[in-house]
Design a protein that fits this description.
Elements lengths: L1 H18 L15 H11 L10 H17 L16 H22 L3 H32 L4 H5 L5 H4 L1 H14 L11 H4 L10 H25 L7 H25 L5 H27 L1
Length: 293
């Protein structure tokens, strides 16, 4: 996944270049395909500076925390040849996703910068708000599936997207907000916060934060494909291929949204969550409960 995330960053840069009618990375190797290797070598060779008022351990704690939270989710990967099955996998996913907020807060707080602290506060408020209705959307799908296990959800007999298209739309909006992506990228609003909560990090620290962010995008794409588009995923080889195809498709969806949709205002973001999306998700959940009962 580290290799896949590194190359996904390059694909996003090239995709944004195509959407904006400009050149993306094209100098390193053929069509810039090895730009990920060049960026990784550059970042990990750069000097990792520390603020004078903080210890190296405390300053490094935030990026490492975000990194382990992001990649710890991949123990839930529902491959056909997986040796273990996590019975409460979806609950584990929700818990780790909520716990990742502490890594963002630590990163912004330990920077000892007003810009970073403001970005961290906005990230915490945004994540907590959208996790409420993200959980409601997940439980609406579980009403039809009846299991927390990602493997059993994958082997479900029907495509949930046809039965709950509204839940899919709500889920995609929540995925964009949860991963701090456009049009909800208020954590890194370049015109307001310079670089958000990671403004003081460079070199290896910035690399860990970038890998964690893009790893969350790929895992959210994986969860979307498994929960809503699981037709044919019960077959040994075609199932794993279908999982990969849907993961790549929804990863490209994140890039497409970033290149086409303008950023919201922060007050409109919070109003959208509490006044529109949360009542809608609760209504869909109650409707699904009635249908199942």
């Amino acid at each position: 996944m580290l290799v896949g995330v590194a190359f996904f960053i390059v694909i996003e840069r090239k995709g944004l270049g195509m959407l904006q009618l400009r050149q993306g990375p094209n100098k390193v190797s053929v069509k810039g395909i090895l730009q990920a290797v060049a960026d990784g070598v550059k970042l990990f060779k750069k000097e990792f500076t520390f603020p004078s008022s903080l210890s190296k351990f405390s300053f490094s704690l935030g990026p490492v925390f975000c990194f382990f939270c992001a990649y710890g989710l991949y123990i839930l990967f529902p491959g056909f040849f997986s040796e273990s099955s996590f019975e409460l996998g979806l609950m584990f996913f929700l818990c780790v996703s909520c716990f990742n907020v502490y890594g963002v807060f630590l990163t912004g707080w330990l920077c000892n910068s007003r810009y970073a602290f403001l970005g961290a506060m906005r990230a915490v408020a945004q994540s907590i708000s959208y996790e409420v209705y993200l959980s409601t959307s997940v439980f609406s799908v579980l009403l039809f599936v009846g299991s927390y296990d990602f493997t059993l959800i994958r082997f479900n007999e029907y495509m949930c997207c046809f039965l709950s298209l509204g839940i899919l739309v709500l889920w995609l909006v929540a995925a964009l907000a949860e991963t701090n992506r456009a049009p909800f990228d208020f954590v890194e609003g370049e015109s307001e916060l310079v670089a958000g909560y990671s403004v003081e990090y460079g070199g290896a620290g910035f690399a860990l934060l970038a890998l964690a962010e893009y790893s969350n995008i790929i895992f959210m794409s994986l969860v979307t494909g498994v929960m809503f588009f699981n037709m044919g995923m019960s077959w040994p080889f075609f199932g794993d291929l279908a999982v990969s195809i849907w993961t790549v498709f929804f990863s490209y969806f994140f890039v497409w949204v970033r290149g086409t949709v303008p950023r919201y205002r922060y007050d409109l973001l919070m109003q959208l969550c509490w006044m529109v999306l949360l009542p809608l998700s609760l209504g869909v959940f109650v409707l699904g409960l009635v249908l199942v009962c």
